[in-house]
Design goal:
GO terms for molecular function: dCMP deaminase activity; zinc ion binding. Keywords: Hydrolase, Metal-binding, Nucleotide biosynthesis, Zinc. By secondary structure, this protein is α/β, with parallel strands linked by helices. It folds into 2 domains: about 180 residues, Cytidine Deaminase, domain 2, CATH 3.40.140.10; about 170 residues, Cytidine Deaminase, domain 2, CATH 3.40.140. It has a 5-stranded mixed beta sheet with strand order 6-5-7-8-9, sandwiched between helices. Strands 2-1-3-4 form a 4-stranded mixed beta sheet. Helix 1 packs antiparallel against helix 9, helix 6 runs antiparallel to helix 13 and helix 11 runs parallel beside helix 12. The longest helix has 19 residues.
């Protein structure tokens, strides 16, 4: 079985959905991903949550209080960009933006919005988008351009498709037996790091369980999703700022910009980690990397040079099938880089998390006056392609 490679639009649709799974909202998790209009590089991500200092208690998440406290996914994504130029950028959201989020997106320069689900009360945003000439609607809700949700267009179909892609990636690597040799020693020496979570700059007690309750699990899951875009030897990687935990890059293994995918020359490909290093959005800080695979010796040198202070990985082999290299471990140790092997994510738990998140979107649609069957079926100008560099 081969994994059907998602289009760029489908890839960022999936990514926005998976970003939402870190939200603590017990009823509706919403995610937003903002990408560059030409390179399609991810510029920012966000999900709905409380501002720093507001506790994630059940009382605060009740309907009568949460609307006054919560910061929506789109606003979070905009605010987390800092001074990054978003002029002309594209936003992928799991829920059509409310009026206040629409203002933020427009003010920051977003010019195209793709969305997965819709609530009637947010239809008032359409006038704002139309006035700002944002590509999302042609005058009325019936002309909005939603993201495709599968062959039968239902959220159930989208849900099953995403689970199928996650299952494919997790099941394609068969690790049998107990860890041995260098890998076993590495696991034993990092037992404490493997069980600890990253410290958020805004620590707060989680009063209720959330879908992905550790940052380490969350970022590894996003790396797993990123790998679905690769043509083969699926590898995904995430680079985050060690101080703020903001995502600096999300990538997968593939050819450099401008090199055609039909070259079929593995030596011309870049690994997911190398791509992430090249795409990083900030300088001057130390980074934490998350990878589906252990890096090759060549990648390790670049990670050390790029000031990666810690690397989490799932599978103890490179995408090419090479075992953990002791020389690579020594280079990382000399550079002061901690290397943390993690367990393969639990497929059943991920499936439940995906279905729970989709359930929130389904409930949000139940009261809509316009059923999904009335949404547009013939979509135009749907797919995206990165702009290739000019050749000399």
């Amino acid at each position: 079985m081969l994994l059907k490679r998602p289009t760029w639009v489908e890839f960022y649709r999936d990514m926005a959905f998976c970003v939402s799974m870190r939200s603590k909202d017990p009823n509706l998790q919403v995610g937003c991903v903002i990408v560059h209009p030409e390179s399609l590089k991810i510029l920012s991500t966000g999900y709905n949550g409380f501002p720093p200092g507001t506790e994630n208690t059940s009382k605060n998440w009740e309907k009568r209080t949460k609307d006054d406290l919560v910061v929506h996914a789109e606003t979070n994504a905009v605010l987390l960009t800092g001074q990054t130029d978003l002029e002309g950028s594209i936003a992928f959201v799991t829920m059509y933006p409310c009026k206040e989020c629409a203002k933020m997106l427009i003010a920051k320069g977003i010019r195209k919005v793709y969305y997965l689900s819709f609530k009637d009360k947010y239809e008032e945003s359409s006038a704002l988008f139309e006035a700002a000439n944002v590509w999302v609607t042609e005058i009325s809700f019936r002309h909005f351009r939603p993201l495709r949700r599968g062959e039968d267009a239902t959220l159930k179909d989208f849900e099953d498709g995403l689970i199928q892609r996650v299952r494919f990636i997790l099941e394609r690597v068969n690790l049998t037996g107990e860890p041995t040799g260098v890998y076993k020693a590495l696991r034993e020496n990092t037992e404490e790091l493997r069980s600890e979570d990253l410290l958020s700059p805004w620590p707060r007690e989680l009063k209720d369980k959330i879908l992905l309750d550790k940052w380490t699990h969350y970022f590894l899951f996003l790396a797993l999703i990123a790998s679905t875009r690769a043509l083969k030897n699926h590898q995904g990687a995430i680079l985050i700022d060690s101080k703020t935990l903001k995502i600096s890059a999300i990538s997968y293994n593939g050819y450099p910009r401008g090199v055609n995918n039909d070259e079929d020359d593995d030596s011309m490909q870049m690994s997911a980690l190398e791509n992430a290093i090249c795409l990083r959005l900030s300088e001057g800080r130390d980074f934490i990397a998350f990878s589906t695979h252990f890096p090759s010796l060549h990648e390790v040198k670049n990670l050390a040079q790029a000031r990666v202070k810690r690397l989490y990985f799932i599978w103890p082999k490179t995408p090419d099938g090479e075992n953990i290299n002791e020389k690579a471990l020594q280079i990382m140790k000399d550079a002061g880089m901690e290397v943390v092997p993690m367990d393969v994510p639990d497929l059943e738990k991920l499936e439940k998390a995906i279905r729970d998140t989709t359930g929130g979107l389904k409930r949000a649609e139940e009261g809509n006056k316009v059923p999904f069957s009335a949404w547009p079926s013939n979509l135009t100008d749907y797919d995206l392609q990165p702009k290739k560099p000019n050749r000399l």
